[in-house]
Sequence to fold (836 residues):
Amino acid sequence: MSAYLSIRNLCVALKTGTPILRSVSLNVDAGQVHALVGESGAGKSMIGKAVLGTLPRALTVTSGEIWLDGVNLLALHPANRRKLIGATAALIPQDPLTALNPSKRIGPQITRRLVDILGWSKRDAEARALDLLAEVHIPDPARVMRTYPHELSGGMRQRILIASAFAAEPKLIIADEPTTALDVTVQKQILRLIADMQARHNTALLFVTHDLGVVSKVSDTLSVLYAGKVVEDARMRRFFMRPIHPYSAALLAATPTYTDPTGSLTPVSDAVIELVEREVREHDLRASR
Amino acid sequence: MRDARGEIRRPLGLRLWLSGGWLTLLVLAAVFAPLIAPKDPLMQDLFLGRMPPFWQSGAEPGFLLGTDSLGRDVLSRMLYGARLALIGALVAGTLTCILGATLGLIAGYYRRWPDRIISRFIDIWMAFPPVLFAILLIAVLGPGLISIIIAIVVIDWTRFARVIRAEAMSQGAMDYVASAQVAGRTRFGTMITEILPNVLPTIIALLTLEMGIAVIVEAILSFVNLSISTDSPTWGGMISEGRTSVHQAWWVLVFPLITLFLTVLSFSQLGEGLKDRFDPVLR
Amino acid sequence: MMYEVRDLHLSLPDMTRKPLLGAAPRIEILKGITFDLPKGAVMGIVGGSGSGKSTLGRAMLRLLEPTGGSVHFNGTDITHLPEDTLRGMRQQFQMIFQDPMSSLNPRRRVGGIIAGPLRLHRMDNVPTRVNEALDMVGLPRSFAQRYPHELSGGQRQRVGIARAIALRPAFILADEIVSGLDVSSQAQVLNLLEELVRELGLTLAFISHDLSVIRRLCDRVLVLHHGEVVEAGTTEAIFEAPQAEYTRTLLDAIPLPDPDQRWG
Fold:
C-alpha cells in the first residue's frame, strides 16, 4: 500500500439518511498533489472534513475506510484520532478573513498548535514561526508576528495560513479552495507558493477546487465529483487531453479560456446531467441492498 | 445539480401553540373576568381570611385558589389582575415598539444627520438611570395606568431603537436595496418595501419581549405600591401582600407568581414562534 | 454615444479614520477616468480588487455622485443631476448585481421582485411583462411564486437579469455577475446575456476580474488599476497585443486549463 492517504468506499450521509458522499475512493501518494474538482454542492469539501474529523454534526460516516499512513482513522478512538491528525495533517482554509482570530495577534495563532498540541517550547515555536513567515515571503516577519489580522491584506493573511499549515511539518495538507476568496493576481502568487512549499516539504496535498484551470496548474492527479460520487479519477495530463467521462468533458467545455476566442461556452447539457444522475441513482440502489 | 444542503429541517412550532394558547387563555380571562370571576375581587370577609386552595383540607367552597389575609378570593383577583397586566403589556409594548422602531429605522437607513441626531438623543436618554426615571415620572404624573404606560415607553424605547437601527444599517448595505434605488424608488419607498420586511421579524421578536417586560415592570411598580390605586387587584400587589404571609398562606404569593412567570415566558416564546412560523426565509 | 465619461473623479470618506469632530479624510477611488461607450457596444471593465471597477459602475449609474469630471448618458449630463430628476430617467439604465444572495430581497417572491420596478414606472400589463421577462431568461413562469432561497445561485442570477431587462432599458451594467457561479451556471448566464444583448439591442458594460469571461462577451475592454485607466481598446487588441504591464500581469495570472504549463 504505497498511497499515503487512501480513502476507500467512503459513504457519508445526513442523519436523516440523505447521502452526501457516495462510496468515494481515492489515493494520494506521499508528496503528491491530488485535486478534488466539482461544482458547488458536489461534496468536495466534505471529503477533506471527513479526513480531518471535522464533519458537521448533522453528518455521519456510514461506511468506508480512511487510511492515513497505514492507520485506519475511522477505527481509532476520537481522542487518538485528533492527536494523530493534529500531528500529521493540516488545513489551508478557504476564507483567510474568518479563519484567523481577529482578537489575537498573528504570532500566537501560528505558535499555538506547536506549543499546545505538540509540546514545543515557546522559543522554538516562535523561531519556527519566523522561519515560516520568511519562507512564505512575508516582509519583516518579526513585525508581522505582532500585528492583528485586520491590519493585513487578504493575500498576506492567506500566506500566514499557509505558513501555519506547514508549521508542524505535516505529511498531509488539505487545501479547501484556498484561492477562491482572493484577487486573480494574488491567486497566482498563492498557488505558486503552495506548490513550492508542497514540493519543498514533500507534503501530500489534497486540493479542493471548482476551477479546472487551477487544477491543471498544480495537481498530479485528480478526482471529479458529482453529487458526492467520484465520476472520474485520472492523472492530470491524460484528463485534459482525453477526458473519459462525458461529465468531465462537459465541465471542460464549459470552462472559458481566453486563448480560444471563438470557442462557445457550452453549459453542461441535460443529457450529461441525466447520465450522471442515473449513475447516482444506481449507486444508491446498490447501496441500499 | 441537486444539493442536499437544503434538507436540514427545523423543529415545528410547538412553542407557538403553547405560548399562544396560554396568552389566549389570559386574554379570555381578562376580557370575561366580570362574567367568570366567582367572587367580587374587592369583597373582604375577615372570617374567611387565609383559606387554602380547594384541594387542601379546611378550604372554603367557592374559593378555588384560596383567600388572602383580608378574605378576598385569590382566583378572582388574579383574573381581574390579568386585565391590568394585559392592557399594560399591549399598549405599552406597542407604543414602545412604534416609537423605537420608527426612530431606529430612520436612523439606520438614512444615516448621516438623521442618524447623528437620533443616536445622540438615544445616548443621552440612556444615561438616565431607568428605575429612578420611572419613579420620578410616576411621582410627577401620579399613579394610574396611563402613568405606567408612559413610564414604560419612555424608558424602553431606546432598546428598540438601538437594535432596529443596527438591523436597518446592515440591511441597507444589501444589494437589493441598491437595486431598488437603481429601479428609481424613492428612499422612503425603499425603506418601506425593502428594509421593513426584513427588519420585521426582529421587530416582532422585540415587541413580544417588550410586552413581557411591560408585565414585569407593572408588577414591580405595583409591588412597591407605585402602580394604580391600591384597592384594585394587581399581580404585583398580590405578590407584595403574599410575601408577608408566605408561611401561613403560601397560595397568595405563589399563584400570581406562577401566572406572572408563565405570562412573561409566553410572550417571549410567542415572538420566537411567530418568527419561525411566518418568516419565509426560515421555513 | 451611450456614455461619455470625462476625467471622472470619485472620492469617498474613510470612516475608519474619522476624527471625533470634523469630517473624515477622503480616499480617491477614481482618479480621472475618460472613455466613450457607443450604443450597442459591449464593454468589459477589468481590474483587480481595489481597482475601482465597481465604483466606476456605480458612478455610471449615479448610485454614487462623482466628485470631479463629468458623466454624460445619452447626451444628458447626469453628473450632478438631483435625485428626483434622475429617478425619472432610471428606467433607461439598469444594473445586475454580483451576489445572487444579497441582490434579491429574501422576503419577497420572485414575481414581486421583477414586478416592483415595473409598477414603479407605472407600466401597463405588469403580469404579462413579468412572464415575458421570465421567458426571456429561460425560467419557468411558476418560479414567480418562489422565494429566492428556493432557487439555485444560477437561477437567482437569472432573476436579477429578468428584473433588469423587464424595464427594457437602453443600457445595463453587469457587476461581476458570474463570479460566484459554477462553471456550468456561468456558461448559461453568459450565453443568455449574449442573446439578450442581440435581441434587445442593449448596450452593456460588464465588470469582471476574469479576463476569460471578458474575451467571450465583450468587443472592447477598459483595464483599470488603482482607479486609473491603464489600457483601453478592442478586445482583440488587448488580448493579442497588450500594451500596459498591468494588463500583461492580469493575462498572465489566469490559470489556463493547459496541462503543459504548470506553476511550481
